[in-house]
Amino acid sequence: MSQPSLIERLAILADAAKYDASCASSGTSKRNSKNGTGIGSTEGMGICHAYAPDGRCISLLKILLTNHCVFDCHYCINRKSSNVRRARFTPQEVVDLTLSFYRRNYIEGLFLSSGIVRNSSHTMEQMVEVGRILREEHDFRGYIHLKTIPEADSELVRQAGLWADRVSINVELPTKAGLTKLAPDKSEAVIEGAMADVKEAIAENKDARKHFRSAPKFAPAGQSTQMIVGADAASDADIVGKASALYGQFRLRRVYYSAFSPIPDASSVLPLKRPPLIREHRLYQSDWLMRFYGFAPQEVQAAAGADGMLPLDIDPKLAWALKFRESFPVDVNRAPREMLLRVPGLGTKVVGAILASRRHRTLRLEDVAKLTVSVAKLRPFIVTADWRPVLLTDRADLRTLITPQRSEQLELFAA
């Protein structure tokens, strides 16, 4: 059987990488080649698919080193028992592709993951070599994200952090039971041990750089992880609890959520259809509440129903507000920032604008309306100089009144 061409292998391995959501490129140190040395930049604009927190668009070549794998994770299209076309790059081929795409202004960086070929350490060694060649031999200053392998030798994972802006280790599933059932070759203890090693290396590097400016940077954009949603029986409350624990234990930059997608020749232990994509969106919103709005994980979990699932028709903050109406209404002219952030419909920027405005004037309802997309969602939860909701906040049908009406998708061939 003939070896696939480079373009054919690129098509196979780029498509195989699409299931990994953790490819953002934010938080790294700024580098460029404006002084005439090196190649690449972490600051520019291009043809892009990832967004930094400041709104910059970052394009990444997102591929696998190989989709061969000795593991047999039930949910993975590249598992050992899967009947998919296999392909493999050498480290030099990945380097050549990265530089070639960069010079054509297609990309600004590389996101590299891999199946496990031969063994974990061998595969990790090849991925580290990609980073080394780019940085040492070509002085590449663009963004590099390496998906590290927890079963690999810890020294190899540490080497990855010296070449990459960000490293990540997927926890895969939110519960130990789910991991044992669907990924029998993987271990929660091994995964979390590797994440702890990366956390320690990042901390040691920060301390070293305080004393020695010449100390090399280690994963300046930190580490992240990804959880698959809907492949096992874990509820949203389970996922929120796991994410909170990961942030606390390993100081992660991000936890990414990826809705399970049915795959060809799937195992009978997997669901027959994918969860609604809005569930993934609600989990990202709950993640935002914990990271930027001051919500404790227990409060986000309290917004879920008796089955532990977050409502799909309303966002988690509104669900929490409807359950804990005794916290409302909030006086926008007097309430502290922490309480304003709990008002449905008020984001961090709007709260900042309210705090700045009320120093100079007493806010009326129309003033708040100018700062928001729709004041209708706010009215039951706020007090202004000329507005008080009275009994509106306690109405039994309040959820119906303020829940956005969902439009049904028309069927193209409906009778």
UniProtKB/TrEMBL annotation:
Domain Elp3/MiaA/NifB-like radical SAM core: 59-286
Cofactor(s) recorded in Swiss-Prot or TrEMBL: [4Fe-4S] cluster
InterPro entries: Aldolase_TIM (IPR013785), DNA_rSAM_put (IPR023874), Elp3/MiaA/NifB-like_rSAM (IPR006638), Endo/Exo/Phosphatase_dom_1 (IPR051675), rSAM (IPR007197), rSAM_sf (IPR058240), RuvA_2-like (IPR010994)
Domain of life: Bacteria
UniProtKB keywords: Iron, Iron-sulfur, Metal-binding, S-adenosyl-L-methionine
Pfam families: Radical_SAM
Protein name: DNA modification/repair radical SAM protein
Species per Swiss-Prot/TrEMBL record: Novosphingobium aquae
Lineage, opening ranks: Bacteria, Pseudomonadati, Pseudomonadota, Alphaproteobacteria, Sphingomonadales
